[in-house]
Amino acid sequence: MACSSPLSISLLSSLTLILLLKISPGCRCHSIMGHNFSIKEAAVHDLQLAFKQNKLTSRQLVEFYLREISRLNPILKGVIEVNPDALYQADKADYEREAKAPGSQSRLHGIPVLLKDNIATKDKLNTTAGSFALVGSVVPRDAGVVTKLRKAGAIILGKASLGEWSHFRTARGPLAWSARGGQGKNPYTLGEPCGSSSGSSISVAANMVAVSLGTETDGSIICPASFNAVVGIKPTVGLTSRAGVIPISPRQDTVGPICRTVSDAVYVLDAIVGIDNNDNATIRASRYIPNGGYGQFLKVAGLRGKRLGIVRNPFFNFGNKTFLHQTFERHFKTLRQRGAILVDHLEIANIKTILDYNLSGEETALLSEFKISLNAYLNKLVASPVRTMADVIAFNNKNPELEMIKTIDQEQFLSAEATNGIGKAEKAALSNLSKLSRDGFVKLMTKNKLDALVTPDFSVSSVLAIGGFPGISVPAGYDTKGVPFGICFGGLRGSEPELIEIAYGFEQATKIRKPPF
């Protein structure tokens, strides 16, 4: 869900990481077969070129990431589990490339991908949403997006950590904590990495994997992308399949890429969009997918002629944070210089209500949807220690030493379990959410003929969430304490082509991202 202010940085952990990096330096320049090729920060295009020029193999790439996980993950806690078959998949990819097998020219062929641990894989990996309650459960099949990744030739490197149950176990607990994964750490500060797709963002930012997948219900891609100086795409709901993903709400859940660059995120998006008969929403949303895919919208001049809306209140109310005021004014200037038309001082009707999780009705709707959806997911598992939300609650109560329920409660689980389907209150909440979205964001965008709304960090997440709208977060800077922050471009359903042009144009004009160490 949404995020809170950064946690204080642990000096001891900071010193530990510094010592770790000094004692065991990472391979900035990886010597391969007589060639020097820098794997660190390498984009998908760079990796594919290295494959083609015989400077790199998929096995060597996977071995590099496995070493980095072994070195960094004890501190950063970005990865829950590594795929024991990752090297086998790498060897298979190398063989296919050598044999020029069909599909071996795919952009993601031979590229390692890390999956948030709520995305099912029918292999030796667990799918647990970070909870011990689902360890050993058997899924019926790969998640729809995993099927598409495998078809593209990607290597499933492992499962990323997350806020347990996508941070829907409790609203009071840490955003990037799970019983299985521990507390995720921001690689820039060792403070708050945000959630719930924390591990996906941490791992990409720290170069423990090439690209990753996260999921979002409200802020869970946009927020950790912003906090960890990476790119996150929250697609239109239904553009990517949610089948096989441990759910919160079919109305708001979406699966999207988290990568170091806009281009990498777009290549992953191209691989995972499309119809999945196990998720009917993909059939309706498939009309948004452009012929030729999304890669064609990676245009350096993509900002030219784009109409971008700015809602100062409340999104740019930085108080006495002069640094942030100045930074975003510079970004506005850059956007204008690159040909964008900024429509300033706009207002979204009822914005305070929309951003109030309780007042808008979002909490009421999500609690009921969560119980219904989770029970359905658990019921379809081939084997599982738990079959209902009530079983999960009971497991947590019986295993406090595993689930830390003395310090991390499960109040949202209890509230969800107390619901009884979509009743009068839930219908009223859903109706209110639709009205708020229609009279607010949709009206703003259509009345002003906007291509995108521009906002800082993750502050717009609820606006996008309740309407199933897409957004892209791009690195925008680092505050006075070194904490990264992003800029978000959000649009109406199906506006990914415009958002990609805008996000790529901004990224290429600014090139703000830098590695954490």
Might you state the CATH topology name? Amidase signature (AS) enzymes
When the domains are counted, the total is 1
Examine the secondary-structure arrangement and name the CATH architecture: Alpha-Beta Complex
Number of helices: 20
Terminal CA distance: 28 Å
Share of β-strand residues: 5-15%
Q: Within the largest sheet, what's the order of strands?
A: 3-5-4-8-10-9-14-15-13-11-12
Q: What level of helicity do the residues show? A: 25-40%
CATH homologous superfamily assignment: Amidase signature (AS) domain
Largest sheet: 11 strands, mixed
Form type: globular
User: CATH class, please?
Assistant: Alpha Beta
- Overall average pLDDT: 94
Question: Which class best fits the helix and strand makeup?
Answer: alpha/beta
Gyration radius (Cα, Å) is: 22 Å
Topology, number of strands: 15
Task: State the low-pLDDT regions, or none.
Answer: 1-12, 22-29
Explained architecture:
The chain has a single domain (37-517), classed as Amidase signature (AS) domain (Amidase signature (AS) enzymes). The chain contains 20 helices and 15 strands. The chain has helices spanning 11-23, 44-52, 58-76, 86-98, 144-151, 164-167, 198-205, 222-227, 262-272, 281-285, 312-315, 322-337, 351-354, 362-380, 389-398, 400-403, 411-417, 424-447, 461-467, 496-510; strands at residues 30-32, 35-37, 79-82, 112-116, 155-160, 177-178, 182-183, 211-216, 231-234, 254-259, 307-310, 341-343, 452-456, 471-478, 484-490. The strands form three sheets. It has an eleven-stranded mixed beta sheet, with helices on both faces. A two-stranded antiparallel sheet has the order 1-2.
